[in-house]
Amino acid sequence: MIQKTAAQMADALAKGETTSVELTQAHLDRISAVDGQVKAFLHVDTEGALAQAKDVDARRKSGEKLSPIAGVPLALKDVLAQRGVPTTSGSKILQGWRPPYDSTVVSKLKDAGVVIMGKTNMDEFAMGSSTENSGYGPTFNPWDLTRTPGGSSGGSAAAVSAFEAPLAIGSDTGGSIRQPAALTGIVGVRPTYGAVSRFGLIAYSSSLDQAGPFGRTVLDTALLHEVMAGHDPKDATSIDSPVPAVVAAAKSGDVKGMKIGVIKQLQGEGYQKGVQARFDESLQVLASLGAEIVEVDCPSFEYALAAYYLIAPSECSSNLARFDAMRYGLRVGDTDGASAEAVMSATRDAGFGREVKRRIILGTYALSSGYYDAYYGSAQKIRTLIIQDYAKAFTQADVLVSPTAPTTAYKIGEKVDDPMAMYLGDVATIPVNLAGICGMSLPAGLADEDGLPVGFQIMAPAMQDQRLYQAGAALEAALLSKWGAPILSKAPELKGAK
Amino acid sequence: MALPTYDEVIAKWDPVLGLEVHVELNTNSKMFCSCATEFGAAPNTQTCPVCLALPGALPVVNEKAIESTILIGLALNCKIAPYSRFARKNYFYPDMPKNFQISQYDEPICYDGYVDVEIETEEGPKQFRIEIERVHMEEDTGKSLHVGGATGRIHGADYSLLDYNRAGIPLVEIVTKIVPGTGKYAPEVAKAYVAELRDILRGLKVSDVKMEQGSLRCDANVSLKPIGSDVLGTRSETKNVNSLRSVERAIRGEMIRHAELLNEGKKVKQETRHFQEDTGLTRSGRSKEQAEDYRYFPDPDLVPVTPAAEWIEELRATLPERPSLRRKRIKEEWNVPDKEMAAMINADVLDIVEATVLLGADPTKARTWWLGEISRIANDQNVAVADLAITPADVAELVALVAAGELTDKLARQVVEGVIAGEGKPSEVVAKRGIKVVNDDGALMAAIEKVCAEQADTAEKVRGGHLPAAGALIGAVMKETKGQADAARVRELLLGHLGQASN
Question: Is the ipTM here above 0.85?
């Protein structure tokens, strides 16, 4: 049962072939069996999940009209607040905190009857690309347990890839959904900025953060997308317009006559050979399906990484100021006579990891008087240029494409002491965040040299998320018939699995 | 060296003012969340994930606060920006939950306005134009209560308690441009400006404008430059100025303090100072020599404020009568002399006098009570007239009692004391104290004869034509009759008794 797609599970539930309790229990069993090796979860809410499953089964029995994925279990990135359930954003500074409120995404999931099984591991406050920056230890890539699953939503991606959950939610500030999706052989979508409410999403970089869905197929991902998106008056940056028809697009999956733009700057040099090969091959598949492939020029993308590493740290230096030991979370050094300042300082020193401190310091510097214009101000200008590059490119193509990440999954510890090398892994995903548009990563096959998954990235203009699903579903179907079986069937069996 | 006198200060130095007024709006909910804003609720009962800055919570702007701010801007003759943004002001302090304050930085919603204020001078009424630099929106902080230690300040306290009820209450900050050219009138001009602002805000019904509760707070920037010089001196910023009277006192005190330093060849430190109500002096607070770096940047959680031009015009059409015009109207309707009008404004009794008149009292009588006896008591008790336990209705009743001949002015003063002491309405005080006018000439004559016998020498002087001596005798008679006699009638009878025709 756990090998099925979420759409198949939903179908079985609707037909009464299984119950949500059964389905949830099967996944909880899988988690018990394999998560000791994968370490995708920080917290498994066994009781809560089964209670939700029981509730949705009862609602179904009473004849209530349910959402298409009601009763399907899901793994939630620990960045999202869930009432009463430990929520840490991967940081020691929030160890033991149980939110008194639900994020809007969680409310929507609950309303839709989606069963939340637990909270998944992540780079601390979503700062990182390998999940190694978690305050609670790394997550391991189910394809090769010596490698990272990517990040920062590595726990969510690994959980879906390892069949611990059919669906998961991540958040994507610079590629944190798309890159781990690529590295674990699954589908991940970063929706248009403002399409999914950020209320209750623990902020890293407010102008770039966006929660989004993971699934093993394009359709599964669309089903979750439709449930979690929509206008929210509690988020001032939320877009007040209807959710694009992503499920319909995923079901149609047609690229005939579609113009697909290959971004000149996001390929070739710096991209692993096997990654480039699978990307080129996918382009040929799309062309064979009737798409027109064009090349587009986005000259400002060269500066995207630099702009990102000024904007995101600047915003995070302010967003993370609230972790001060006064109202919640860790408190260190509160001995007799210690001043509030001393307690704040000791708590932040003990509670934040190295990468978080590095970015807070970077951002504090970039916003300082006398440096603001040179750093934060310039970065905002680059952001405008990138938006203009995209706007121009989208006059030449309906969607744009690139490899999702320059490499396949790398070894745990390989880049941990070289932040620049780690940052370069986000070069292809970051422009989407800076422009506030949407992007998808879906499996393009395995790299010849290491047999690890390669991701194919599709980008579409703001609130045109359905185009991602339309193109993605077409490519997925063509590749599936070429491979003969889903790519995850090629992953090695995890020990302990039945 | 002794402190220079105020006259010595202004003979040599020219003050330059800058005033920052914070106004708490009286919206039902907070600036960025739906929490209640009532004053005086139990600590931390008016909080939510947003104003406690729980992880993940996001601010959403209160539309009513924007409307109130635009109204304020319009009433202060400001331009309203078609596009303005919120910015984060970053600094750590335990009573600020996010450790940044959402404010407006280089893009305020209202800018470039002015307020005209009038003060009474030796040369007659004089008008000053105070130019407004900006009016912007921000959120208030929580409150810290530092327990233990000698000073009640964070340093030296045993522990601190935090109340976040106030965190996120909408604040509007009204900042003047520098105000030069007020000379010796600087303290009065500043006070008149804050009073005018308060009147305008009250008229707009956007704030409770209660200085003592902190819903209107004034920071006064003062610097001195030598008379005739164009070079601005170093300023100090005085906070904690909690009444109109304190605005005047604080500025006067700072002018004297600055002059003393400058006269001695010392430098004025650029710093924040705290006004102390009891001494009228300021004490040093945070030093601002090293300007704090607040790392302002546009708040990415909020969208720009873009009020439609039609909306602004709709709001402009709802502006109430401008207080200065209202004063002109009142002056004419009641036929008030300049000096009396200025006195009423200075004493801040115009609203209360108008309320008394609206209850039927004669304008002159109403004014005389509030400005005279009642103001004197307020002064003695060091409180505002409005805070005394006497209402316009009480004064209207009092005026009616005097007009009906049931009280003399002197007796009415006793009644005022009684009302203020909490003894009830004027009629109740009259009843309880047994106050009544003694109209019985027989009783008065008995008292007169008694007094003239006791003070035979004085009586003899009056009999001899030395009329000023009669005052002492009248006083003694009044004392004898416990003040319940009509002094004019006593005089008449006394002079008759001593063979002097009364006039």
Answer: yes
